[in-house]
Amino acid sequence: MLTLIALLSGALFGLGLVVSGMIDPAKVLGFLNLFGAWDPSLVVVMGGALAVFAPGYFLWRKGHSRCVLGSELPRVPAATIDARLVGGALIFGIGWGLAGICPGPAIGLAGSLQWQAGVFIAAMVAGLWLAGRLQSAGSGKS
What we know:
By secondary structure, the protein is an all-alpha fold. The protein has one domain (2-138). Helices cover 68% and strands 0% of the residues. The longest helix is centred in the C-terminal third of the chain and has 24 residues, at 115-138.
C-alpha cells in the first residue's frame, strides 16, 4: 500500500511539474535571471508546494510519530549546517543554474526524449556514484 501511495505521489508531483511548466529549463533559467527578464512563476509553484507541505511538517515537528497510514515517521533531524551540507547545496545550485534542470523535473523532461534530459540524468547518476564512493572512502569502507 505504501509503495502505491509513493507511486501516486510521485506521479502527482510529476504532473504538477509538467502543468506548471517547471520541466522547461528556459522557465527555470528565467526565474534565476534576477537582473534580466525575471520570471516569478517558480515562486508561485514553490508557494503552492509549501502550502501543501507546511501543515504536515508542523505536525511532525510537534512530535507526531505516525503518519496517517500508521507507519512510523523518522525523527526530526538536527539542524546542523556543516561543510557537506554547504558543499552539496553549492554543487546543486551551480548545476541548477547552469542547466536549468533539477532532479525531479529531469525525470519528467526525460519523457520528452530531449537530449538535455539524458545528459543531465547521466551526470546526476555519475555524481551519485561519485558521492557514494567518496563517502565510503571517507568512512573506511570499500
